Amino acid sequence: MVMETIESQIAKRAWTLEDGVHVLDDQRVVKSKNLVLVVSHLARRAVLKYVRVLAFPKRAHMHYFEANKGNVNPAGFASLNPNAVGTLTLVGLDHRDLESHQVQLPFPFEGSPKLFLTLAAAQTHFKSANNMSPVQKKIKSLLFSTYPKWRFHALQEAIRMSKIFGQIFLVDKRTPDMKRLLDNNKKGETSTFRTELARICEDHGLTPVENDHFLVLANTRFLTRTREQAEGKP
Predict the structure, then answer these.
(1) Nearest to residue 217, comparing CAs of 228, 226, 229, 204?
(2) Contact 204, 152 (CB under 8 A)
(3) How many Cβ atoms are within 10 Å of 59's Cβ, its own excluded?
């Protein structure tokens, strides 16, 4: 039996509160009509080392997700919080981490901030199957009808954290999870994940730039200035 996590307990308490931003047990909690986000982080010397954003459904729907825990990867994030809709995981890096792996940012590095917040995973706690059980069918229906934007709202919180701590937001394209989310669908249409990132860029004055290693949501003004400097413009 999996012990209920602090985040799960907080989410249940949050449903008794009004919509808005709250702090429960030192965790930032964002409650809306259909979703509760619990944001936990670890920072050392004012630098983010780790951020996790958990999206929880309405209390009446939690038992569906929990009942489905046997149908998801036992080593995945769903095993920690089986009654959640999904999890975003981000890791803090600095320029030395990038240099040690011989990876390059997709824009000139000179003069840029040397701290980063890297999105490593964005997992929905559900795995589709050919022969789905009634519980799986119910969850699939809920994901389309009630929680289709859980990841978008969780990403908004991740961007907020990166801004507060002054760390550039990166998507690590080398991880299987990110590669899958970024790839266009079989019809060649832009992936939902890329569409969500584009919307976030519009909301926060950011510009998406990428290479084989990373997709960076860079400050538009900073990016323009950096490019001008690289081209020798005053």
Answers:
(1) 204
(2) no
(3) 14
First to last CA, the chain: 63
Domain-located, residue 161: yes
Which is it for the CA torsion 63, 67, 72, 77, positive or negative?
Answer: positive
Q: The tokens of 6 are what? A: 């602090």
Total domains in the chain come to 1
Flag whether 1 is in a domain: no
Nearest-angstrom CA–CA distance, 43 and 52:
12
Residue 185: its pLDDT value, please?
Answer: 72
Ordered alpha helix ranges (H), the chain: 6-14, 59-67, 95-100, 134-145, 150-164, 176-182, 192-204, 220-230
Is pTM, for the whole model, over 0.85? yes
Pairing of strands 86-94, 214-219: unpaired
> Residue 151 CB: number of other CB atoms within 10 A?
22
Query: Is residue 29, in this structure, part of any structural domain at all?
Result: yes
| pLDDT at 153 > cutoff 70 | yes
Q: At 45, give phi and psi (nearest 5°).
A: 50, 45
How is the beta sheet containing 47-56 ordered, strand by strand?
20-24, 27-31, 36-44, 47-56, 86-94, 115-124, 168-172, 214-219, 206-210
Domain extent at residue 78? 6-230
